[in-house]
Amino acid sequence: MTTTHSTHDVGIVGAGLAGLAAARALTADGFDVVVLEARDRVGGRTAEHTLSSGEPIDLGAQWIGTNHDRVLDLVEAFDLELWSQYDDGTDQVAVAGEIFEHDERYRALPAESEATLREAFERIETLRKSVPLESPQDAPTAGAWDGTTLETWKRETITTDAACEAFDAFVRAEFTVEPSQISLLSFLSAVDASGGLEAVTDGDGRTEAYRLVGGIHQLSRRLAEDLGDAIRLGEPVRRIDRTGDTVSLVTAEANYTVSDAIVAMSPPLAGRIEYDLPLSGRREALTQRMPMGSVIKCFAVYEEPFWRSDGCSGSVLATDGILSEVADATLPETGRGALVGFVAGADALEWTDRPVAERRDRVLDDLARYFGPRAGDPIEYVDKAWSTTPWSAGGYNASMAPGTMTTCGDALCGPVDRLYWAGAETATEWSGFMEGAVRSGRRVATEIRERHSS
Amino acid sequence: MTTTHSTHDVGIVGAGLAGLAAARALTADGFDVVVLEARDRVGGRTAEHTLSSGEPIDLGAQWIGTNHDRVLDLVEAFDLELWSQYDDGTDQVAVAGEIFEHDERYRALPAESEATLREAFERIETLRKSVPLESPQDAPTAGAWDGTTLETWKRETITTDAACEAFDAFVRAEFTVEPSQISLLSFLSAVDASGGLEAVTDGDGRTEAYRLVGGIHQLSRRLAEDLGDAIRLGEPVRRIDRTGDTVSLVTAEANYTVSDAIVAMSPPLAGRIEYDLPLSGRREALTQRMPMGSVIKCFAVYEEPFWRSDGCSGSVLATDGILSEVADATLPETGRGALVGFVAGADALEWTDRPVAERRDRVLDDLARYFGPRAGDPIEYVDKAWSTTPWSAGGYNASMAPGTMTTCGDALCGPVDRLYWAGAETATEWSGFMEGAVRSGRRVATEIRERHSS
């Protein structure tokens, strides 16, 4: 195999939203950019799928929040159409052997459980406001909070089984981890970066406000179209070298020589590249201590959203089956009904490793329990297990393990020589969201622009 | 660059003690073996260094335990000479602003602190005996123990600052992690696999009993000599493919086609290989949730072991500087004095990223505080920061983060199709020791032999 060589101003590793946003900003500034993508498609942790009937669905990221300004800018720039998330009717919370119902999910539990969960949420809001957004490790009691799992905090704070289970489902569905797998500090920081609990729990500034008619993947596709042949698909970068005044990005087929490089990937995947330049001990430790979450995203499609006429919103938070969360995902293009469910955390690992047919049956059992027998008999079922998806190795995001933020968290985004780190996890605002990915791409573009103009 | 092809019975990735032991066992059984090593040397996390005066020292693993039978077998087979660890005289424990002294390290603290530490150790011994060695995740309260950090357990259990600090130093020195970074379950399992606290704390069956005259690296070198040109240095395996009835190990220069493959590396480094065969979701999650520890190993060399005549054993356990532990490392070949110190856990990350000269000064300050001004003025100082050592990315070992063992710990050693996992971490007995590495290599050799004879 022959190796080709080419030279560019900036090389970007990863054509997810972060890498594409960085490429767009740098190209607009006149930089010659090359974007190297391991997959055969752009879009990273967004993933489009076409149903047998032709409608697109999002097997990866799908929701845009009301305050996701950079993403909403792109929606406007590309003349795309938003579709409001359906939320009329009754939410269900299936915990502690019962299914509780209420128009507002977190008010569904019986009084004592509702009270202890509300107090826990209020305490989280108080605590997270003392965590600095840009440097959570500088919070006043950062050491103690980083040495305590969220599980320990939950057991000390929440007094009923039903409320504990609802909290577990909330953590799994929102952050794709078990409460045992993150520290209180990293949880508070994640809530902080998500605009607070109000936003995450469907209140003000809610993060699950809109989908995109035609599918979220259009964002990446349109960004990529504008970049043309600057994007090279199917070219995983194996090694990054530093030679003299340049950086080399080495793939199986080619060497790209660039002035500056952006690694726009999740930290654990960025850690799998071989770096022939001195990274810090903290950076090395961080990429090993910030694993991807675990999630399977499941869709069931029906002739119509029949649960609406039953007064149901389609929203479920649960621990009684394998789905942690369910939401209405009715198809904007045709109005056909769809439910989207998330198997998350430990359940996701267990069910990723089981046969798809068995998983389908189990998910449909869950849906039938919440929405009646019609839900168990969809026209079509499709799911995607992100833990075994190559070049993702998990989803939605990477979270720091306990004892990580205070020991090496500061190595998350600081550039190393001419190497810049982007990706949803590196954003301080909306970390872990598409909005964070786009912001991180713009941030590194600014860092590179400033280095070149100084 | 042209790609060469060759065919073998078994391909082994990694020429540390695990890979070499597997190769030795399989070669003895008549298998044609190839061992692919990324570094330009064999020996993995053992590392030899020659002082300017010509004596060898071990910058990596160095101690052999009294019950490390497989390693002791190799010592005998290669006609190597053991050197007993010096432990006469007074140990020091430098915590809570004072330096306490006693012939037995863990009896040095004042009465109340000694009592609470001893009770904690007794409790650990009781608890760890309920953890099954081969499947810690099946312990009766595994879920709760895996959701609690060792830090939380320590704060609940140990009642004085001095005892807490001594415990911190013990955990850092023995396991190269902060108590915040591992769960109670993974700690109990590690103690269990080390033969219990007696062995780790220098009692019966002690793990730090012997060194090897001439350096521990001789074990790997002699194993490698017997294997001859089956070992290929400087060839990192980038990808492992499964095609038909064979497995391909792909390096930058060559494709090796084999019937069975052994990955004999730490789990996080094994996770950096690209696998073109279906690994489980659990396996993918595990390699992301089992980071390497953090350690800098430091040597100071003197004309003679002057501390001995002062009545000191050379042994220190400390939190008052940056060294967590110090031990006598007097050179068997010449009798010149040497002290070995370990900067471990969070301190190791911080000091890995500082200039070596600054680190040297700081370590020598610590040694002078424990052993007087002569200790601050060595003939030679050398250290090795393992977190930034390529193809190690940390040391001594990988430990599971909280919430890992109960969710994906079962993916640690089970073979996947024709892929076998070896390495010190995969041993059930003496996990994390050289003895565990050798045992793991023999275990996979047996697994492969059995597959071929069935």
From TrEMBL, chains A, B:
The protein's UniProt keywords, in alphabetical order, are:
Oxidoreductase
The answer to whether UniProt assigns keyword DNA-binding to this entry is no
Annotated GO MF terms: monoamine oxidase activity
Pfam families per UniProt: Amino_oxidase
Needed co-factor(s) = FAD
**Is Oxidoreductase included in the keywords of this UniProt record?**
yes
For this protein, the Enzyme Commission number is 1.4.3.4
Domain spans labelled Amine oxidase: 17-448
Question: Belongs to which family?
Answer: Belongs to the flavin monoamine oxidase family.
| Protein name as catalogued | Amine oxidase [flavin-containing] A
Q: Per the UniProt entry, what species is this protein from, by scientific name?
A: Natrarchaeobaculum sulfurireducens
